[in-house]
Amino acid sequence: MSARRVVVVGGVAAGPKVASKVVRLDPTAEVTIIEKGEFLSYAGCGLPYYLSGVVKEQKELMSTPVGVVRDPVFFQNVKNVRVLNRTEATQIDRPGKRVCVRDLTNDGERWLDYDALVLATGARPVMPPIPGVELAGVFTLHGVHDAEGIKAVLAEGRAHDVVIIGGGLIGVEVTEALAVKGCRVTLVEMLPQILPMLDWEVAKLVEQHMESHGVKVLTETKLTQVNGNTYVTGVVTDRGRIAADMVIVAVGVRPNVDLARAAGIEIGETGAIKVDQRMCTSDPDVYAAGDCVENTDLVTGKPCYVPLGSTANKQGRVAAVNLCGGNDTFPGVLGSTVCKVFDFCVARTGLTESGARRAGYDAETALTPAPDRAHYMPTAKPLVLKLVVERPTGRLLGAQAVGPGDGAKRIDVAAMAITSNVTVGQLAKADLCYAPPFSPAMDNIITAADVARNKLEGQMAGVSAMDVHRMQHDGRDLVLLDVRSQTEWDEVRLPGSVHIPLGALRGRLN
């Protein structure tokens, strides 16, 4: 029997995972990776930290944990995988089961036969169709070459004023990276809030934290033009002009599906390649994984597009198992995400409150601030945790965390709870680890679950900060009772609030 021929198009995340798993399952397989770019298997999510200098050298982004660079020689010698980098897949002949590839160094073309084809073509950065985006000094951050271009401008000392267009994950992470390098950074976001995967009040805490570190954040602001002759000098928005020595566009990505679409492979309603749980496309001999594919939302069951490196690696493994004759599945995603914003941990999973209501759920919430470990430990840090819960079942639908404390730990617990259809009643009794250096006796997520239970049972009600602001603005008759200490009251307070410290409150109830 002849060796299994597997061709993988894409060599960054999902592609190398597929190739490596295939040769482990079938050492006789002939596996070829086609990669348009120069670099392989690099950590794209590490690029902001390469900009900031936390990651010192480029090679660290594409090395194994023991420091071996994952280049074509590594894949050939260690993995027994052939790599054709600087090579573009231009056409798929599905009836003939072959792929046409072009060597970008000499324009030579040839056909590669396959028994199984894997599309790991990733995504492309979105560039808004406005005048001036083609100027020198305007960048995206989608690959190593982008990072090197930005670092070159920084090294030349030309990037004094930087404008970041887009307040999503990449925009926020790049904002921090350049702010810590000493740049004056303005973040421009068209939507009413940054980080749209969060609820507004959680995103507002992040926005205020960024501003406390010298970043100017402009929400509800639309970019209309980039100014300059050959090199950028500023941007124009619907709120005025902003000077800029460098502009970074981070308004999102779109799945790269050109090759698949041209071959007649089905594209899903999100614009990404449609796959089943086995990562198989509409062609039984063609699989797809990573940022080019459509996912299923594990809460709603609906198609979604959530491009994440963690997801790409898991999907790549599933595709490899199945094309080798196994039976593995990838059920879907919760959009579990974490990012560092200066000294804040910002994390989320599942549905936001607004997303849950749009999806038709009767949603209740619990928003709880607390230290992330025993309060008397010097390492304890504050953390705000928000749970989104279905009424009346109490099923956990989503969670968000923000603050200097360890939010990722709590969101990981929430992700498993949502996946397992756990209620807040069950979550409140979870047997989690406890020791003062690591967590409080009642962990943050257990406290939040208890607050949600109290609200579901009618023992307490909540009012959001936005509702309070709206009631004050509308002149509603309400009493704002502040029970914090005198020191806290003196530091900051809401206009019109009444101050009765908690220790004195019981004696004044009558």
Topology, please?
Blueprint: E1 5-9, H1 14-25, E2 30-35, H2 47-52, H3 72-79, E3 81-85, E4 87-93, E5 98-103, E6 109-113, E7 116-119, E8 123-125, E9 138-139, H4 144-155, E10 161-165, H5 169-179, E11 184-188, H6 200-212, E12 216-218, E13 223-228, E14 232-237, E15 240-243, E16 246-249, E17 253-255, H7 258-262, E18 286-288, E19 295-296, E20 303-304, H8 309-323, E21 337-341, E22 344-350, H9 353-358, E23 363-371, E24 382-390, E25 396-403, H10 407-419, H11 424-427, H12 444-456, H13 465-473, E26 481-482, H14 486-491, E27 498-499, H15 502-505
Parallel strand pairs: 1-2, 1-7, 2-3, 7-18, 9-16, 10-11, 10-16, 11-12, 26-27
Antiparallel strand pairs: 4-5, 5-6, 8-17, 13-14, 14-15, 19-20, 21-22, 22-25, 23-24, 24-25
Helix pairs in contact: 1-8
Notes on the protein architecture:
By secondary structure, the protein is α/β, with parallel strands linked by helices. It folds into four domains: 5-43 and 55-123 and 254-323, FAD/NAD(P)-binding domain, CATH 3.50.50; 138-251, FAD/NAD(P)-binding domain; 343-456, FAD/NAD-linked reductase, C-terminal dimerisation domain (Enolase-like, domain 1, 2-Layer Sandwich); 479-508, no CATH class. Strands 3-2-1-7-18 form a five-stranded parallel sheet. Strands 9-16-10-11-12 form a five-stranded parallel sheet. A hairpin with a 5-residue loop joins strand 24 and strand 25 (396-403). Helix 1 runs parallel beside helix 8 (309-323).
